[in-house]
Amino acid sequence: MIIGITATALTFVALMLSIAAYYLYDRKREPSLLTFARVAFYTASGLIIFQAVLLMYGILTHHFEWNYVFSYSSRSLSLFYLISTFWAGQEGTFLLWLVFGVLYGFWIIRTRKKEEPLVMAFMLMVMAFIAIILIRKNPFDYIWHVNPASFGVGMVPRDGVGLNPLLQDPWMVIHPPILFAGYSATMIPFAFAMYALIKREYDEWVRAVLPFAVFAGLLLGAGIILGGYWSYTTLGWGGFWGWDPVENSSLVPWLFSLALIHGLIIQLVQGGMKKTNILMAILTFVFVLYASFLTRSGILTDFSVHSFGESELSNYLIAFVLFFFALGILVYLFRVNEVKYKPVYSSLGTRESFIDLGILILVLFSVFVFIGTSWPIISGIFKSKAESFATEYYNYLAGPGAILMALLIALAPVMRWKTSSWNKLKTVTLHSIVSLALGAVYYFLGVKDLIPLLIFILSTFVILVNGQLVIQLLRKKNYGFGGYLVHVGVGLMFMGIVASTGYDREVKVQFPKDVPKKVFGYTIEYNGQQAAKDGKNRVILTVNGKKTFAKFYWSDYSRAWMVGPSVENKWSKDLYISPIQIIPAEQSMPRGDELTLVKGQKIKYRTYTLLFKGYDMKSHEMGGSTIVLKTVIDVFDANGKLIGEIEPGIHMHNQKKDMEPATFVDGKGKVYLKSVNVEARTIHILLTNPTDKTNPMAGKEILAAEVSVKPFINLLWLGTILMILGFIVTLYYRFQQQKS
Amino acid sequence: MRSKYIIGAVIIIGFTIWAAVSFNASLTPYVSVEEAKHMDKVVQVKGERLGSGNFDVNTNQFKFKIRDEKGDVLPVVYDGAKPGNFDQASHVVCVGKYENGVFHAKELLVKCPSKYQPEGNNS
Predict the structure, then answer these.
(1) B6/A contact by beta carbon, under 8 A
(2) In this structure, are residues A727 and A622 in contact, taking their beta carbons and an 8 Å threshold?
(3) HSE value, Cβ hemisphere, 13 Å, CA-based, for A1
(4) Which of A375, A559, A672 should one mutate to test binding to chain B, selecting the residue with the greatest count of B CBs within 10 A?
(5) Which residue of B lies nearest to A420 if distances are taken between CA atoms?
């Protein structure tokens, strides 16, 4: 669509003009240049908003001649999911990034007049780069330009391909925009760092940037948490975190942003960490770019459960990462030597020393996650064959990492800034005694492994120490409690994660239809399938007499079977049932003798003679979508005397076949109708051997499912909520502080 | 002052060593069928799916075969039901160990053909 593509191109031009004008204004300080720069930015903003509205309009009104609309939406989607189509594909997410860039731009212009020229210039540079990518891959491209082989010029498809069913989930409607708001927000600290370097203001920038760093940390954290919650409740692989490249690549910049926030606080209080902070601000942003490269270039397709798009943008994305990495590092190296080194002149027993060590651990952990995630690429370059490794690697690292982190998070808040104050540790003696005592309780409750037990004890310590600080500050109406509330949240999260993943019980069970089974003390019964309006067919389960549902459905979009778990949330644990497969009745046949009977012909079977007489015609008249087919077989004994009639049948309901076996005349064996050939007038039956022990699953539809019990996962969710709340309070507090 | 750097250095070195050890322990090399038969450790074998396999209700095992690029066929046994998308998969990655003539998979990754790829071109 020419208007849309032109708007994208003009956006790029306007952004470049604005960058040039901002830069010149910064050198010459002519007011007209500032006006020009702002007008150019406002123009770009108008164009970006126009494109966003246009894309949304195209999605809502089903303009399937646009490739993007065709590829990600369809007429059957509800309004809710049509809206989320906006960020279902790469073009849409890049456009979303630009929209957030516009908001942040206005924010900077309104609140940071002093830093505006250079900060805006660097932010707009990032946006201009995205505009280039959008010109290359435009959301308004006509389908016949993208795919001329299948679509003639002017041909409007009647319906779109549709939205990936996994994304048709309420959590998936809000997760991507929040995560992208966070990704986009990391360019603010980056731009401030560049400003600091160019202007040689290595100290003043800290006060200005800290609230924005908190803002980015909040959004990245919230986005990651929502993604985890989505995978737990929707994907059904049993967890909230899988150390998947997509997850890891969002985790690394988040951990870096946390390190940056703490580094900035140290510098604000006592002036140290000048060089490190600038570097961390640059790297946080570069890791975001790297994440978008990893997840969009398709390079890790073989190593991830996520599906990736095409790789046509690879080169642009590599250029994107390398350009800003090089720009940041070069300017940094150019200036770093003149940054006055202000040593953190304090001894070990100070708060800044403890925070420093915490930053070190965050950074180290991030770097090793980064190396692990990139290993398929690294090993692909240096070795003949790309290597893969089990995700246990990350768990091995996370254990000791969490122990050290928890220890520092518990002790740092007690220590005094600048002056050594080991004796302050005495104030938390009671907390440590309580934690150890609770540790004994945890031990007897079953936490008997060293690393989990240590994490439990130290997390309790974290919660007690930081919780007390939260209460003390709240009493004084001091909003500085946000950070400590985040720490309480982290402590709860550590405990929830260790309890629910380290002490979960998990078993694969086969549930024959309508046969209750005891699993982990629960009585679980599979009661068949149920069609759903949205095509996500459900699996009916009864747990302790209560009905619950999981999902198991075929997706035309993904050309695959999709599953969704049933999650029964109890206060102390979750019962998590995730379908693996539904085995149709005819594939779960017991062993026995198989016979083919021809209508009207007698056949010998053991000492009996069987005669297939015909079908039980009455059985057809069930009406609706249910069909019952029964066959009538006469059984004669060795003397040719008729001793009985058996009627094995098939029960069809909504194309689901159920066996209706008959009991053989001896009262022991079962007779199954396996198949019917109407034209040849034959039927195929299976007679079980009466001496065989009958398998209760035989001849029944079977649900294979993974059942797991996840203890205290609610601690994790509670922790995430407290953490987000703490971040919001901190954000408010730091903005107040910035103003004063 | 100095003690802080010593502690920092200890953490860095300790963490790095720990990471390297963990990493080596978690490496599961991609090998061919022939190599898998002679290796006494957990490996990954990727191969083309042969047939639909069959699930044995009595032993609760799923048995199938894969063929690697060299044409060697590997019988695989998996404790559990057939994965949901097995029949749609072009290739299967089996993580496990070869023992007594069969490959005991503890994990199966089914590779579904990407919807962007034309049929028959699933590498």
Answers:
(1) no
(2) no
(3) 18
(4) A559
(5) B1
Find out whether A410 and A461 touch, Cβ atoms under 8 Å.
yes
Low-confidence ranges of chain A (pLDDT < 70): 298, 300-312, 343-346, 384-386, 617-625, 653-656, 690-697
In this prediction, residue A407 carries a pLDDT of 96
Contacts of A624 (CB under 8 A, 6+ apart): none
Q: Looking at domain A587-694, does it have CATH number 2.60.98?
A: yes
CB contact under 8 A, A347 and B4: yes
What's the gap between Cα A535 and its chain centre? Answer: 23
Query: Among residues 373-402 of chain A, which lie with CB inside 8 Å of chain B?
Result: 385-393, 396-397, 400-401
Determine whether domain A1-162 maps to CATH 1.10.10. Answer: no
**pTM of the shown model:** 0.88
Domain ranges within chain B, ordered by starting residue? 30-111
CATH 2.40.50.140, applies to B30-111: yes
Question: What is the pLDDT at residue A639?
Answer: 84
SS3 A239: coil
Q: Write down the H helix ranges in A240-273.
A: 245-270
- Contact (CB<8Å) B28/A388: yes
Q: Which of B26, B44, B82 sits opposite A581 (nearest CB)?
A: B82
Domain-wise residue ranges, chain A: 1-162, 164-344, 506-586+703-713, 587-694
Residue A72 and residue A91 in contact, taking contact as beta carbons nearer than 8 Å: no
* Separation between Cα atoms, residue A471 and residue A462, nearest integer Å: 14
Q: What is the ipTM of this complex?
A: 0.80
| CB-nearest partner of B4 from A348, A391, A400 | A348
Strand partners, A578: A706
Phi, psi (degrees; rounded to nearest 5) at A467: -60, -40
What pLDDT is stored for residue A534 in this prediction?
77
Is A346's Cβ below 8 Å from some Cβ in B? yes
Q: Which residue has the tokens 């799916």?
A: B49
Q: DSSP letter for A611, please.
A: E
How many CB pairs below 8 Å do chains A and B form together?
A: 125
**Measured between alpha carbons, how far is B113 from A359 in angstroms, rounded to an integer?**
43
Find the CB nearest B81 among A365, A583, A695.
A583
